[in-house]
Amino acid sequence: MAQIFGIVSLAVLLSVGLNLIVPLEYATDIIDTVALNFLSVLVGLAIALHGMLSACIISRSMNLPEGDNGDKLKSLMKGVMEEIKDNALLSLFSYFAVLISLYIKGINQPLLTFLCLSTEALSIGMNISALALIFLTSYAIYDIAISIMKLQLSEDKK
């Protein structure tokens, strides 16, 4: 939980710093372009890793011997696959959230004045959320790599 708080804090600081250094319309364009491109690549990577590893894990779990050690390895493999699936879904949902935030940024001015919001505040808030989602998805991909290493270590112990 502390890592997630640190990631979101870093995203807030980076977004506010970027919005202070660069004019808001340029910062919004930069963050939107980077967020869509970066997250689309990470979503593809996460889903591809899950697809490739699931077939490998299923075939290896069939060949494990019965007994206490085999059951431990099967439960470890199942846990690792659950982590990888959860991280792939987080990547996918963060991509959809960034797409939704792009549509929210395009809300027309009369609706924003009715809701007592300014376009600058909305853009800064959506920039912060996009950067937080980028960092969280990057952490999810890092977690997938750690899970694959755990899986490799369990295979070596077999």
Distance between the termini: 33 Å
Biggest pleated-sheet summary: none
Rg to the nearest angstrom?
Answer: 20 Å
Number of domains: 1
Q: What are the segments in which pLDDT stays under 50 over at least 5 consecutive residues?
A: none
Number of strands: 0
Number of helices: 5
General form: elongated
Return the average pLDDT rounded to an integer. Answer: 78
- What percentage of the residues does DSSP assign to strands (E)? under 5%
Portion in helices = over 70%
Return the structural class.
Answer: mainly alpha
User: What is the element string, with H for helices and E for strands?
Assistant: HHHHH
Describe the structure.
The protein contains 5 helices and no strands. It is an all-alpha fold and 158 residues long. It has one domain (2-157). Helix 2 packs antiparallel against helix 3 and helix 3 packs antiparallel against helix 5 (119-157).
